């Protein structure tokens, strides 16, 4: 009995010690086996100074802190913090060593602030960190090595951060990450290489992004499907005919890029009786169907099509050869390419100039000279004959 009384007497002051120093605006209490200081929306502009160093959980949600300077917590004696909640604290800056000396910190909530950037070494001394939330911050991109080596990080939330780009090495040091939330950002496409370092990943949330479901997104869709990672319903925002459709319900050929088309020579001059060839370069994925049209009629006669893959993006050359052209072959030819991404066309104009006029003039001049010579010869013969007749008559009259 005496031992029990002594134990109670000893425990009482110990309990009073860490709660007695609870600063105004905070409530210090036991919760879930932790020493907690709850200070929500209490008007703090800096980290409270009069809290016990034994505090393990600090809730500062709704305070207008503005910035976290280097050693913001350890400088006021809070070195045993395990969980820190800084949601909606108007933070625009977190200095690189803000969480320095917090060696047993396992959770940080920095959501609903105004952070546009943060130093890649911000959490470099927090190797015990298991959960990090940066949701609802205007972070438009994640740079290479954006996060330091965090061997115990299991959950990372980046929801509604205005993210448009993630470098393929942004998550390079997060090999133990199991849950990643990237929903409600501005992604239209992401490379599969972004997620390759995350070989322990079990859950990936990509929904509510404006995904453009064209050929460039197919690699990501296939990777997530093979890795069984896309655990939430992810919908297409573009193109229009796929809007609202789930990735998982689309075939590979539905992820199409509208073809690109170009012609080397838009104006071709051919020689009558000779062959002429038009060339049309087309790229597209999946490979487009290519054909040629003259006056709304598909050209089949003397048609030769050659397709050649130049790059992984499937570049093709289509050549149309017309044999021994005539004047009827002149006109506007259209090279048309189509796949599920759309249809495009390019025009080639064929001109067949008339035969040189000089040749006809020379032929007509030669004909005129020949006719004149014959005429003169006939006239000369007639004159000569008349002269002979006249001479004979004269000779006859003179004869006795």
UniProtKB/TrEMBL annotation:
Domain of life (superkingdom): Eukaryota
Pfam families noted in UniProt: I-set, LRR_8
Signal peptide: 1-16
PROSITE patterns: IG_LIKE, LRR
Domain Ig-like per the UniProt entry, residue ranges: 259-349
InterPro entries: Cys-rich_flank_reg_C, Ig-like_dom, Ig-like_dom_sf, Ig-like_fold, Ig_I-set, Ig_sub, Ig_sub2, Leu-rich_rpt
CDD domains per the UniProt record, alphabetical: Ig
Xref: SMART domains: IG (SM00409), IGc2 (SM00408), LRR_TYP (SM00369), LRRCT (SM00082)
UniProt keyword terms in alphabetical order: Disulfide bond, Glycoprotein, Immunoglobulin domain, Leucine-rich repeat, Membrane, Repeat, Signal, Transmembrane, Transmembrane helix
Transmembrane regions: 373-396
Name the UniProt record assigns to this protein: Ig-like domain-containing protein
């Amino acid at each position: 009995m005496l031992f029990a009384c002594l134990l109670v007497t000893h425990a009482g002051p110990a309990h009073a010690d860490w709660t007695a120093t609870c600063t105004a605006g905070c409530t210090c209490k036991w919760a879930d086996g932790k020493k907690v200081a709850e200070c929500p929306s209490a008007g703090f502009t800096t980290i409270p100074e009069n809290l016990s160093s034994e505090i393990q959980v600090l809730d500062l949600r709704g305070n207008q802190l503005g910035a976290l300077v280097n050693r913001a917590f350890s400088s006021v004696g809070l070195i045993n913090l395990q969980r820190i909640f800084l949601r909606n604290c108007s933070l625009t800056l977190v200095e690189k060593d803000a969480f320095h000396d917090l060696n047993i910190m396992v959770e940080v909530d920095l959501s609903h602030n105004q952070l546009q950037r943060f130093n890649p070494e911000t959490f470099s001394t927090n190797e015990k960190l298991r959960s990090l939330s940066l949701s609802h911050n205007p972070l438009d991109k994640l740079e290479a090595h954006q996060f330091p080596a965090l061997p115990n990080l299991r959950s990372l939330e980046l929801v509604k951060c205005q993210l448009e780009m993630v470098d393929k090495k942004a998550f390079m040091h997060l090999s133990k990450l199991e849950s990643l939330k990237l929903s409600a950002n501005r992604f239209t496409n992401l490379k599969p290489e972004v997620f390759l370092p995350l070989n322990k990943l079990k859950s990936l949330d990509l929904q509510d992004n404006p995904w453009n479901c064209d050929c460039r997104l197919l690699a990501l869709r296939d990777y997530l499907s093979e890795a069984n990672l896309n655990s939430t319903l992810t919908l297409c925002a573009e193109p229009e005919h796929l809007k609202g459709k789930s990735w998982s319900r689309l075939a590979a050929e539905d992820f199409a890029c509208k073809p690109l088309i170009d012609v080397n020579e838009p104006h071709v001059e051919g020689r009558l009786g000779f062959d002429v060839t038009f060339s049309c370069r087309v790229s597209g994925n999946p490979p487009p169907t290519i054909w040629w049209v003259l006056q709304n009629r598909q050209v089949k006669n003397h048609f030769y099509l050659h397709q050649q893959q130049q790059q992984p993006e499937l570049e093709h050359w289509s050549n149309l050869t017309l044999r021994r052209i005539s004047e009827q072959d002149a006109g506007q030819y259209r090279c048309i390419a189509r796949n599920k991404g759309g249809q495009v066309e390019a025009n080639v104009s064929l001109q067949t100039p008339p035969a040189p006029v000089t040749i006809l003039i020379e032929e007509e001049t030669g004909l005129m000279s020949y006719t004149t010579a014959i005429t003169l010869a006939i006239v000369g013969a007639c004159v000569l004959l008349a002269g002979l007749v006249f001479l004979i008559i004269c000779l006859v009259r003179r004869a006795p």
